Amino acid sequence: MTSETSTPVPPSEPMPPETASPQAQGSLIQFNEEDIRRTLRRALILAGAAVLVATPILWAWLGWRTCLTFVIGVAISSTGIVEWLQLLTAMMSRMEEGRTPVPMGRVLIMFFLRLAVAGVLLYASLNSLHGSVYALLAGLAVSLLALTVESIRLVFRTG
Q: Is residue 22 part of a domain?
């Protein structure tokens, strides 16, 4: 039979906050408004570059209807990123003192107008172009993928 004996561990002294490492103080990464704005703009540029590369390939391989359906999907998803930029500007102008607040009514009207136009474009492209649904979904995913890539770059850049 073995008996387990526990040896008392001396209590560790807490480190003063000024000597603790930045990771030990908190696990959250802090972003400022300009970081987010830069990330959204880079995502738009990356989505535009993807369209410039993919459009000729899709046109030659699957035809102009599928290519146009893809471009419509990218346009719809890219306008979402633009809406996020406008919403960020409106919210930050209301939160910081000394800045002229952006009228929230205009931002909300543009948001709902974009949703309506996106719905009409989706319906029209699927109903009248007879392009591939997969091309439309791929177009919608391009901006999401670009935003994911740029967000990961932001985390690694600031982390």
A: no
